[in-house]
């Protein structure tokens, strides 16, 4: 089975406050598209790789399977990150209802988001977790860390490449800029796309 992934397009003209076009375009064109290219290259190589010689200490197959997860998650997380930018930060509708229910209030969620974003070395993912039927801010250090039953609703990239050009080392200011630019319609669209209201009622 040959899998190939095409990069998604995003409206990069809708710039987040405080972020430059140069930084966003670099992030998209160099990093995101680079992950897509490498993911496709891995899929090509898996077609020919030596399955019989696979070994958990070192083998070609192991390296390809490790980087398959790394690139697949990097692609998904960046796509959710770019898609969730360009709004006015106003959380409303079903996303706000769910945050109120699971975090107590939007302010509580923001508090946990800020703490998570300063703690993580890679990502903060506001996710609906199918296993317990609740929203979580999951903080991860690397693309290949994940809670497998989670569906990302909003994603914040806290790797330095996401903010260094515009904010140098001021991650706190970048987090506030991201909060002001969240497009919460993206979270609501994801809830609809996966029919999560029905899933949640059944949880
Ligand atoms: Fe990134």
Give the CATH topology of the largest domain: minor pseudopilin epsh fold
CATH-defined superfamily of the largest domain = Iron/manganese superoxide dismutase, C-terminal domain
Rg calculated over all Cα atoms: 18 Å
The biggest beta sheet, please? 3 strands, antiparallel
The unique ligands bound to this protein are:
fe (iii) ion
| Mean of pLDDT | 95
Helix content: 40-55%
* Strand segment tally: 3
Q: Tell me the overall shape.
A: globular
**Which CATH architecture of the largest domain would you pick?**
3-Layer(bab) Sandwich
Distance between the termini: 34 Å
SS-based class: mainly alpha
What's the helix-strand series? HHHHEEEHHHH
Biggest sheet, spatial arrangement of strands = 2-1-3
Low-confidence stretches: none
Report a brief summary of the structure.
54% of the residues lie in helices and 11% in strands. It is mainly alpha-helical and 203 residues long.
How does this model look, in words?
It is a single chain. With 203 residues, the protein is mainly α. It has 2 domains: 63 residues; 110 residues, 3-Layer(bab) Sandwich (minor pseudopilin epsh fold). The protein has 8 helices and 3 strands; from the N terminus they run H-H-H-H-E-E-E-H-H-H-H. It has a 3-stranded antiparallel sheet. A hairpin with a 4-residue loop joins strand 1 and strand 2. The longest helix has 28 residues. The radius of gyration is 18 Å and the shape is globular. The protein starts with 20 loop residues before the first helix and ends with a helix. The model has no long low-confidence stretch (mean pLDDT 95).
């Amino acid at each position: 089975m040959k899998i190939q992934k095409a990069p998604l397009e995003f409206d990069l003209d809708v710039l987040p406050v405080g972020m430059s076009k140069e930084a966003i375009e670099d992030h998209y064109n160099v990093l995101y598209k680079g992950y897509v290219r490498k993911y496709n290259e891995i899929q090509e190589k898996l077609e020919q790789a030596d399955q019989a010689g696979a070994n958990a200490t070192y083998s070609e197959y192991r390296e390809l399977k490790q980087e398959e997860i790394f690139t697949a998650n990097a692609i998904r997380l960046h796509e959710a990150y770019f898609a969730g930018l360009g709004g006015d930060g106003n959380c409303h509708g079903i996303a706000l209802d769910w945050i109120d229910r699971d975090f107590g209030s939007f302010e509580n969620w923001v508090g946990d988001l800020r703490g998570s974003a300063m703690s993580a070395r890679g990502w903060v993912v506001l996710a609906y977790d199918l296993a317990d039927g609740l929203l979580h801010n999951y903080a991860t250090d690397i693309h290949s860390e994940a809670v497998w039953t989670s569906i990302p609703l909003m994603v914040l990239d806290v790797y330095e490449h996401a903010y260094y050009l515009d904010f140098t080392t001021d991650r706190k200011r970048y987090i506030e800029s991201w909060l002001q630019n969240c497009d919460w319609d993206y979270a609501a669209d994801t809830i609809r796309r996966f029919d999560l209201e029905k899933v949640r009622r059944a949880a």
